[in-house]
Amino acid sequence: MDVTLTINGQKVTVPDGSTILEAARYAGISIPTLCHHPDLTNVGACRMCVVSVERARGLQTACTTPVFEGMVVDTESEDARETRKFVLEMLLTDHPNDCMVCEVNGDCELQDLVYDYGVAWPEHRGVRHSYEADPDPNPFIFIDRNKCILCSRCIRACDEIQNRDVWNFAYRGFKTKLVAGADQFLLDARCESCGQCVAYCPVGALYDKMSLGAGRVSQLTKVRTTCSYCGVGCNFDLNVRDGVIVRVTSAHDAPVNGMSLCVKGRYGYDYVHHPDRLTRPLVRAKWLGAEQVEEQVANGNWQIATVAEKYVQPPASGPQPSISDGTFIQTDWDTALDVVARKFTEVKKAHGGDAFAVFASAKCTNEENYLFNKFTRQVLGTNNIDHCARL
Amino acid sequence: MTNSIRDIAEESQCIFVIGSNTTEQHPVIGTKIRRAKRRRGVKLIVADPRRIDIADYADLHLRHRPGTDIPLLNGLMHVIVREGWHDEAFIAERTEGFEELKAVVEKYPPEVVSEITGVPAEDIEKAARMLAENRPGALLYAMGITQHIIGVANVMSCANLQMLLGNMGVPGGGVNPLRGQNNVQGACDLGGLPNVYPGYQRVTDPAIQEKFERAWGMPLSNQVGLTVTEMLKAAEEGAVRCLYVIGENPMVSDPDLNHVRYSLQQTEFIVVQDLFFTETCQFADVILPAASFAEKEGTFTNTERRIQRVRAAVKPPGEAKSDSWIIAQLAKRMIALGAASPDPDAPHAGWDYESAAEVMAEVNALTPIYAGVTYRRLEAGETPQWPVPGEDHPGTPILHVGKFSRGLGRFVAMDHVPPDELPDDEYPLVLTTGRVLYHWHGGEMTHRARSLEAMYPEALVEIHPKDAEKANIGDGELMKVASRRGEIIAKAQVTDRVEPGLIFTTFHFAESAANFLTNPALDPQAKIPEYKVCAVRVEAVPEGNGADGEAEMEPTG
Ligand code: SF4
Ligand code: SF4
Ligand code: SF4
Ligand code: FES
Fold first, then answer.
1. Which residue of A has its CA nearest to B179?
2. What does pTM read for this prediction?
3. A370 touches chain B (CB under 8 A)
4. Contact, B420 vs B530, CB < 8 A?
5. Contact criterion met (CB < 8 Å) for B192 and A161
6. ipTM score here?
7. A371 touches chain B (CB under 8 A)
8. Cβ(A194)–Cβ(A266) under 8 Å?
9. Contact at 8 Å (CB) between B349 and B218?
10. In CATH, what number is assigned to the domain containing residue A71?
């Protein structure tokens, strides 16, 4: 069943049961919102979306009011606009004037609306909240309750998307406060550190702790990619500043996961830039020949690598350690590739392809695995290729 | 997966999770299951020896003993057949072997099953009724099903149950393995297996062999190659002289590590290509620094067979290079040295690739299930699920609709086979292994992700209060776990997540990797080691005997 209504003089036909907000968006008419999010249930809490409806008493919240046949809506009535302005002013009276240094400057729904409605920063009267910023010791989620506009989007995200029910409001009136569990730390309130609440927060009240001070939206480039951990295949955006990944943000149009990510996908990206990363080929001295090693090390082309337990130490200054057969030498690519190619060729000629075994990788791309398979079968001449699918 | 994450989350009436710690291992799927349970009211049955997180949301948690999946599934099927709840039309039209199945499950009434599995008979009755009354139902499984000496039989039993209920080829149904590593599906699809070329085309099929010989311009072997576990054995015996290890870390992820170490030591020449200096690198002759997922272009295939783009966001550090560059370099150099002389006129003989898209074009040409997975579509935002036989084919979200790929679905009735190693007087406890939310696999990446590491910095062993008390081990204290193959020291986490007689630990920590303990006994077909069951004993470690209270490895044997 369809319903036809009029919004700002425009006829719109939508399925019965749609809200005014949905009908308006369908018709390309925008209505400002704060507590609404298309993924979440509507609570009609913020009154940003109020509109005038002919013959209705008072303004209606567009996000919760269902349409009816013949309804006549004015989204830009003076009444509605004044009310929205008033809502914004009220929010600002209890909001720190912090945009200059706020993490979400340029990516904040409140800031955008204040701009759109030309609301001036109100003179502060009466009491304001002054909560401690970052009161929670968890390593992932930063909380600044002074910026919280009590829209409950985080509560609904945790409840409806993550299904974990960590957040809720405690106390009443002016004292109303967003709390985890029974006013506990997040990790004691069964939080799984997925960061969905951060992703749905319209302002800077919740933010990714690892990304504090690392760059704001206008300084970041987003690159859409697929997670490197599990097989769910979540997509997200790597946020890059000056060649460094500083944040992961989820994307509404990700095919598998939408806005959802888990703690590894959202907060497990920094291994990419870890100082332990291997940066040069390493070859044991015995495959290079003592003379060549001595010469190349002496003229600084190669370095003697000191291997600590799990990483290669930067070459030490001062006297170089002595070289034995087993010493790893940092060489150039040409040398390392030639050592491997020569040894492989020699073994293949003497013992045939089945003297090789290749561990392909479930972490590499499809294209790379195709090439490993081609290399093993065409060049090495064996079917001895497998990976850790079984483990 | 035969089905898609979306149709399971949105259309199934019952979700049966067996051998998958979904909310920790495939967290976003876990979230969707919880949502289906809470928002749509689907029935959720979880079968797992441990009280894993998702069990808290379940209508029914069947805590069967490790290694008793077949009797449990047979018990469910027994009740379904006894009550006449099986889908007769589906069975008649689409399957064969039902009579044999019936004869086998006949022997598994709930009372008998209860004896073997430890699950109360009434719960088996209840679960069977729930499965029967709420169709379509989806079955999800992971390593808890496969990492047994009878892994393949376990998988078949799952399929038996779903065929019996007519839950195949329909939205919201299916047998759905949750693949572990991000691209384990793609590595299998693209020929990273010893018996098949890309797209599961058999190396033993002469027509296929000829097709690839013509494409690559070289005669090719028609002998099935070695699996990972066999490779190590062959290396130890000298039949394999060179190991080329790309982005894998057998020194943490393979069973019976003391033995792996020995095999690697015996190998003449080892090349490791990786992001980090892994435990396996200690045995390498040459180490090649590779690029991470954030530094290269390509695609991954997820657990529901969906192909999605991976994009370069940053440059590799130092001189690290992408795996495709490295392998192409090696190929060209070896060809120049005469290791192979592919016919230059063959259409795909060469190694001059300009981009991942060019490699994919070659895949398109040679791999029917990926034929239509072109970069033109991927760049337009499509994420098709294979099989995608052509450019204009939309992909296949659900397998086996109307027909199984082999024609008729075959019931393969299975009997209970106990695990290879059972507890005895000397090793009285069962050890089962797995992963935790904050870490991944061998931990190469997550130990270097600072916040994840902060959450879970050391190996823990879950042990039931009763067993802990018996051995005089307190919560948070160091304990020693020993099996016939080795021992580890790690911190005890005293919890009733495990039942008495069972302990659990992870293989994320090289120093106290569970795989010093695990049993390398393999499933004869899939060659998967039995990670989910081995016999161990535990003892308290007196204060000051672990290095600074840190978990520590003590290799033996
Ligand atoms: S991080 Fe996830 S689980 Fe924790 S409170 Fe936020 S939404 Fe809930
Ligand atoms: S923290 Fe953010 S999402 Fe949560 S109630 Fe406050 S403003 Fe809304
Ligand atoms: S974000 Fe989490 S659930 Fe999603 S693919 Fe990555 S590891 Fe898996
Ligand atoms: S958006 Fe409608 S009341 Fe908040």
1. A231
2. 0.92
3. yes
4. yes
5. no
6. 0.92
7. yes
8. yes
9. yes
10. 3.10.20.740
